[in-house]
Amino acid sequence: MNNNSTKKQTRSRSPEKKAAQFEKILEAGKKLFLEKGREGFSLRGLAKNLAMNQNNLYNYVESKRELWIAIRNKFFKQYREENIKIIKDHKGPTKNLLMNIFKNFLEFAEKDFGAFSMMHLREYPPSNKIGPFEKEYREFNYLRGTAKVIQNAIEAGEIKDSNAGMLTFFTYSLILGTALVERHMRIVEQDPKYKEDYASEILQFGQADFSREEFRNFVLEKLEHLLKD
What we know:
Layout: H1 2-11, H2 15-40, H3 43-49, H4 54-57, H5 64-89, H6 94-111, H7 113-120, H8 132-135, H9 142-155, H10 164-190, H11 212-228
Helix pairs in contact: 2-5, 5-6, 5-7, 6-7, 6-9, 6-10, 6-11, 9-10, 10-11
């Protein structure tokens, strides 16, 4: 019995190693989703990229939909924790807190647009089966959180408009659009294939006489003035 017990302990992974392997799966899965899209992605391809047995991969995720949900959960948790820290550290007018949250939204998109796009722009892969990640899924309602901060600013007399819900959708549409424009500008700057003879509408975003940083500051400044009026 002792020999069998020793063998089982040798074969089984420690919780730390399992967690580290799961992180590798999430990062490799994100990369492959972005390269192949929902339709082109497969767990078989992911297992191959990880030099991992496909059956072993199923011990971590049951389907590509489950993997997608797990990836989004990871980055929404990261984004939530960043915002919680911003809120805890904030001192001063509520409107300034709101602007700091908007800035963090844009900075998050700049740091990892792949994760950002899976969080805000792309839909889940379909599946006929609900797996454990989906069963335990808790919606990250960033609109509700933003609306709460806006409502606090309204009640403090810092924002004149009284419709917190409408303002939330309005501001979200502005910063989401800004994140996309910044992404296009960054692609033209950094990818050498985007030259004058390259067939892509994205090229026009490289023809501005201002930088990405100047554009972001302009949007945030205008947004702050709009909230005052």
